Amino acid sequence: MAPMQPLFTPGYAPTQNERQAQQRQTAPGSESRRWITPSRRSTPDLPQPPEGPTQPGAINVEEMMRSFMSEEMRTLEAQMEQRFSPQIQRATTSTPGIDDLARGVRETPLTSRITNTITPKFGSISFPRFDGMSDPHDHLLQYKHVVQSTNIPTHMLNDMMCKLFAQSLKGDTLRWFCNLPPESIDSFDELSLEFMRSYSVHIQSGKTTKDLWGVIQGPHESLRAYIKRFSKAISELSGLDDGTAREALKKGLRHRSLFKNEICARYPPRIQDALHRAKGFIELEEENERVERDLTCTRDELSKARDDRAKTFRRERQRPQRRTEHRVERTTRSGHKRPLSPPKYALGISPSELIAHLERQDFVTWPKKLPENPTRDTTKY
User: Fold this and answer.
1) What are the CA-CA distances from residue 336 to residues 82, 322, 329 (Å)?
2) pTM of this prediction?
3) Which of 65, 163, 302, 343 is the most buried if burial means most Cβ atoms within 10 Å?
């Protein structure tokens, strides 16, 4: 009988059940059995396959588990590296993502055919700048008008509009242009389509004829203000015929308006003629308003002056006559006494001397004596 292999590894502390099992194996007459050597990394109480040559067709479970775990670890490591590599790069470099930024600056969304086009000399252009908060359609119209007004040849106009378009952008819109896929724009139509799609939220809804019929002159609105609103509504419509515009203008004017009577009496052939004719009525209305305002101010001033005079007269009549106990003297506010009235004469001689002097003058004619009344009472007079 072969010697028994040690059941437990050195340094392992067996439990009570394990010690009893070892005693049963070493007892006389007991059959020798092999068990899995307990280990800290393996599950105890599991039988170990018998040693010996592997039978053909047998499956090695331990090797399968080891290969499966190795494959899982490699997959997990790859996922962790893919997920945390940007954070590691930002943490270990002083300029994170500098390669991506430099690559974005070098690349352009325009094709090589457009970028290799030689730019002709056309002078300096002041482009309108788009910041992404206004109507993109209006920006495209203004940009095309500015570029077409230069000396760029017609056959190069499409390519040059693509090359110069970035100069009309700023801020986030310029970043949007740089982030377009490389070599994806080959014409200005494609660039306009991408631009309109990206900023379509800011496109203003188009006006219709129904909006034009809703432009009505207010009860206190001047003709100038109404014509200004009506002209703005016409400019926002496309394909408007003159008949519809004239009828909308006539309907929107106030009842019994002089300009409305003019349109009804002399029907204008075009809407531009009607708007030009409104200029004279605007001047007439403003002149009438100015004259009426002047007359109103004059009437108000006269009425105010009349009221002031009446108030002064009433105040003078209602003023109490302040007198002291002596009618000859009156005390002023400062406390000084002054005579109630000036003296009756201011001469250096007495009245009798004055009369005697006048009698000796030739130019003095004395009045005749009145005839005496015989019925008068002589005792009284």
Assistant:
1) 110, 15, 10
2) 0.41
3) 163
